[in-house]
Amino acid sequence: MSGLTLRTKELGTALEAWPAGLYGLGSILLLTPFVSQFIMQVQFFPREFITGLAIFCCMPTTLSSGVILTQLVGGNSALALAMTVASNLLGIIIVPLSLARYIGTGAGVSLPTEKLFRSLVTRLLIPLIIGKVAREASKGIADFVDRNQQGFSVGNAVLLSLVPWIQISRSRSLILSVQVEAFAAAITVGVLIHLALLAFNIAMLHILSRLGKKGDSVFAKKEYTRAVILVSSQKTLPVMITVVEQLGGALGEPGLLVIPCVFAHINQVLIAKT
Length: 274
Description:
Layout: H1 2-5, H2 18-39, H3 47-57, H4 65-72, H5 77-107, H6 113-137, H7 139-147, H8 149-170, H9 172-176, H10 180-211, H11 222-232, H12 237-247, H13 254-273
Pfam families: SBF_like
Function: May function as sodium-coupled metabolite transporter across the chloroplast envelope.
Subcellular location: Membrane; Plastid, Chloroplast envelope
């Protein structure tokens, strides 16, 4: 579905903002995963809640909400789309390495990096390519998808919601044993992480805008900075769940790893809308 609904014709218009896009990719794939090693130092029970949020920080940006929110606030949607596509493609290579370095080392376990890479390729990249090729190969398919964009969005959302629901249901007995205060604390930590990412990216773009000539720098143009701030401050849930499934419990109970990230995913969208 993501491949079928992925429109890339306007990507060329984002070329003039390549410095902003490059910063966004660096923030998504390099800076945020680096922060995850500090999140792992937080003492929390159950431990999986913090580990899950640290894994979440190593993920690429959201596949759709970042672009949609950028359009809503008057940002450059072409730049947002370019960063989304690039970060998710590059993330297939970088995410397993980040997890092994920052999460596996901190947890004292060896992660199956090669297995993770193969899984991301087969479960995410190949289906995405198939959908995109089908869209580009047939104008009829592309027109049908565009006419039924809302239906595809709803279907995508339903399917995505089923995946964490299944993971959480598998760990039902453990989740019911967790105190309500622990859930509240995990949700709060997720909100704080997103606010910290927003604050960091806003501050960095403000600094970068001052370095160039006044009015000439792409970092001084609001439509570009809005796109970068929104897209580089969000993380995708489906990729995180795919990773957790492949870990096979190496970092803890999958349901407990996923549940704080479900709330974090919802919160980042709500915060961005406000």
